[in-house]
Amino acid sequence: MEPGRNRLLADMAVRDTGLGDVEDKIIKNYRKTLGLLRDLKGVKTVGVVAEYPERGLVEIARPVGVVAAITPSTNPAATPANKVINALKCRNAVIIAPSPKGLSSAATLVNYIHTELKKLGLPTDLVQCLPAPITKESTQELMKQADLVVATGSQNNIRAAYASGTPAFGVGAGNVASIIDLSANLAEAAEAIAASKIFDNATSCSSENSAVILDGVYADAIAALQSAGGVMLTADEKNTLQATMWPNGKLSAAITAQKAAKIAQLAGLSDERFAKARFLMVEESGTGPAYPYSGEKLSPVLTIYRAKDFDSACQLVSDIYAFQGAGHSVGIHSVDDANILRLGLELPVSRVIVNQAHCFATGGAFDNGLPFSLSMGCGTWGGNNFSDNMTYRQYMNTTRIARKIPPRMPTQEEIFGEYLKRHGA
């Protein structure tokens, strides 16, 4: 939270990982931490936390023990800070397992935390970081020996956490699509998508990867996205960029979390319109492995789909998520409540983000009600055991005292009466 430390951590993160933007990381470090602290202020996580006399129940919060915090290179300071705060709030010890490139940021953060723990007369070993060199073997051993694993990062990391034999919370893959329907304010939608798409060079799993635009507003929406800084590639430019982004069929680390102009330069796209591009746009019609633009790109490249109506838009998003990103979230720019509710009822998503910049909103924001977090559960759709934003609740055990109460045994008529009236015995 201290500005000088924040900037140092942001500088270090970009310098050592090569990912993202310093000024955006400063904003992320500050806002995500401040929001989390706001959510935790006054929340009771020690001793008796709830009593239900009518049910004869008392709930007691208990620590889980030692938490292994697996953290990604995309957020080497903000994510560890989030996990440490949640762990300590619930009286746990926590050991950070950073990515190799994120070790410097994590270790510096831990040193700052140790200074504060000493002021409080608390043991500094409450918060630790794996020492260099960071290896898969040391991370796997940490996960085996810990009491709980909270993992954020690549799906390889998540699978390793689930396979460790230790109780684990992991997150699903991102590949967010946002729908622009006929009722959308196109200028506001375009600015929100642009802001989300370029923030920290699209390191966030919540950054839009696709925009699905209804046919009736397609031309005007594209014009609005262009006014917001997007540059639409021709078919030939699209093919050229694809060869650079996915050499040998795998997303290139060289383009990950880089600015649009640099990505265009790496692809040999020399047209002067790319020099000032905030983000690049490509038109696509298909989904799946044969259409790599339909997947997560971790870069300011936005795939554009044209849908003839809202039914088609829903089907397109469903097809995209069948390839990648199921369970995470979907965006919609609309004032049509029926369309908004339909997404929540039908699509395989844990969150529907309405008329907001998606990457700012999904992990909690000061102007929506979601809890602040940098780790989003994606439910069974995304291979996870929870569909909430990861909060302190994942870092605590609950013991329940149960006392005897007057019996509440129902009659068979109360349970089966309506069914038997309709269908008989």
What is the fold's blueprint, element by element?
Elements: H1 3-17, H2 22-40, E1 47-52, E2 57-63, E3 66-70, H3 78-89, E4 93-97, H4 103-119, E5 127-129, H5 136-145, E6 148-151, H6 155-162, E7 168-169, E8 176-180, H7 186-198, E9 208-214, H8 218-227, E10 230-232, H9 235-245, H10 260-266, E11 279-283, E12 301-307, H11 310-323, E13 330-333, H12 337-346, E14 352-354, H13 358-361, E15 396-402, H14 412-423
Key traits:
17% strand; 38% helix; 2 domains; 425 residues; alpha/beta; Aldehyde Dehydrogenase, Chain A, domain 2; five-stranded parallel β-sheet; Aldehyde Dehydrogenase, Chain A, domain 1
Produce a short descriptive summary.
The protein has 425 residues and is an alpha/beta fold. The chain has 14 helices and 15 strands.
Description:
The protein is of the alpha/beta class. The chain folds into 2 domains: 180 residues, Aldehyde Dehydrogenase, Chain A, domain 1 (3-Layer(aba) Sandwich); 188 residues, Aldehyde Dehydrogenase, Chain A, domain 2 (3-Layer(aba) Sandwich), CATH 3.40.309.10. It is built from 14 helices and 15 strands. It has a 7-stranded parallel β-sheet with strand order 10-11-12-9-8-13-14, with helices on both faces. Strands 5-4-3-6-7 form a 5-stranded parallel β-sheet, with helices on both faces. Strand 6, helix 6 and strand 7 form a beta-alpha-beta unit. Helix 1 crosses helix 2. The relative contact order is 0.14. The mean pLDDT is 96.
